[in-house]
Amino acid sequence: MRSVLISGGGIAGLVLADSLRRQGFAVTIVERASKPRTTGQAVDIRGAALTAMDRLGYRAELESRRTRLKGMSWLNGAGVEQWRREDFVLSSGRLDSPDIEILRAELTEVLQAGLLRTDAAREDDGSELVFGDWITGLTDGPDGVDIQFAQTAPHRFDLVVGADGLYSGVRRLAFGPAERYLHHLGAYLGVFGGPNLIDLEDWQVWVQDPAATYVVYPTRDNSEVRVTVGFESPAMTVDYRDEPQHRQLVADRIARIPWQTDALRKTLEASADFQFGAMAQARLGSWSSGRVALIGDAASCPSPLTGQGTSVAIIQAYVLAQELARNAAATDGHTVAYRRYEERLRGFVDLNQALIGPEGQPAEEGAVDKIKDAVDLDA
Ligand SMILES: Cc1cc2nc3c(=O)[nH]c(=O)nc-3n(C[C@H](O)[C@H](O)[C@H](O)COP(=O)(O)OP(=O)(O)OC[C@H]3O[C@@H](n4cnc5c(N)ncnc54)[C@H](O)[C@@H]3O)c2cc1C
């Protein structure tokens, strides 16, 4: 049985792990967070990604957990409504679409349960999901990849996949520093959630002010809200793990906008789940090197401006697993599998990355619908 180490237990890592274990691979995930992460906004599963989720048996569960908004308003910074829609919300698209918008935390919960489930039909195959550990050293050799971990003993794996997000550790070790691959799009994004102090009911609100743009909407039966604060800024030298600094940057923006200032400040202060990052795309000439491959944001983050990061990650995980399984019997099957994975998906990823304008303008309405199926899952 071939052993695969996946760095990162986010969307891409969990889908890849589940797809591989079904096809007889021995899979280990190392996830840096010490426990399952509950942070994040709603993310979207569209087109071919929805087909992949359907084939893996997740669709019904995801449907039952989808967000259920009834429309949106666009306000200026003083809270005056500029326009409203009841057929569409900017975060996910048309409300009558079969695509699924779901909180990122709920999606990872469903995928984790699927990966770790054992029952009569699926015996325990030894798949492991290890929290609180990460790769510190990686030596790629002819017979395997020797890995050092921060917490546990070194180990050799047949293959290693980096599914560890925009600031991927595997990419740094196997391909070089992030600066070589990340293209800043001139903005930052803070995401947090907490009690619904502004009484939003099934309704999304966008607020545009020179200081920042908000996206706010209720979750969990309107008991909580999720808030995204996006603001333009040239690349800053922030340590991407320095949460107090990130919180301060977001608090400064909230203080400058008149709409619901106190409520949003309190929500931020009370929020246990805070996430901050640059709006950036990852662009690499190749998604593999030797026995190491990258998927999801680590390989090709299209940026949250496209709303396609999750769908692209799911499709990459699904196709890479398919190619590894097809080529498992060959001596250097991974070389063929990695090449096919990239040949099949490069064009699709390019289309997704091109959704945003050269100066980071968000995708136009309907643009995602034109490309969400532009990939053949059975090629
Ligand atoms: C907490 C969180 C919140 C997010 N919120 C949003 C959002 O609100 N809106 C949006 O559009 N996108 C959001 N994203 C990004 C979105 O999830 C991705 O674009 C998309 O799902 C692609 O998934 P991915 O698996 O490639 O990356 P991610 O979902 O980023 O998952 C990467 C995983 O790798 C782990 N990790 C990171 N470094 C290491 C390391 N060195 N070793 C081991 N594990 C590591 C992370 O903890 C994470 O679990 C968020 C990501 C995270 C991690």
Summarize the topology:
Layout: E1 3-7, H1 11-22, E2 26-31, E3 42-45, H2 47-55, H3 59-64, E4 72-76, E5 81-85, E6 88-89, E7 93-94, E8 100-103, H4 104-116, E9 128-131, E10 135-141, E11 144-149, E12 155-157, E13 159-162, H5 169-175, E14 182-195, E15 204-209, E16 212-219, E17 224-232, H6 243-255, H7 261-270, E18 274-282, E19 288-289, E20 292-294, H8 297-300, H9 309-326, H10 333-353, H11 367-371
Parallel strand pairs: 1-2, 1-13, 2-9, 4-15, 13-20
Antiparallel strand pairs: 3-8, 4-5, 6-7, 10-11, 11-12, 14-17, 14-18, 15-16, 16-17, 19-20
Helix pairs in contact: 1-4, 1-9, 2-9, 6-7, 9-10
The protein binds flavin-adenine dinucleotide (FAD).
Model description:
It is a single chain. The protein is of the alpha/beta class and 379 residues long. It folds into two domains: 3-68 and 103-182 and 281-371, FAD/NAD(P)-binding domain (3-Layer(bba) Sandwich); 185-280, D-Amino Acid Oxidase, Chain A, domain 2, CATH 3.30.9. Helices cover 31% and strands 28% of the residues. It is built from eleven helices and 20 strands. It has helices at 11-22, 47-55, 59-64, 104-116, 169-175, 243-255, 261-270, 297-300, 309-326, 333-353, 367-371, and strands spanning 3-7, 26-31, 42-45, 72-76, 81-85, 88-89, 93-94, 100-103, 128-131, 135-141, 144-149, 155-157, 159-162, 182-195, 204-209, 212-219, 224-232, 274-282, 288-289, 292-294. The chain has a seven-stranded mixed sheet with strand order 5-4-15-16-17-14-18. Helix 6 runs antiparallel to helix 7 (261-270). The chain starts with a strand and ends in an 8-residue tail after the last helix. Bound molecules: flavin-adenine dinucleotide. The site of flavin-adenine dinucleotide has 31 residues, from helix 1, strand 2, helix 8 and helix 9.
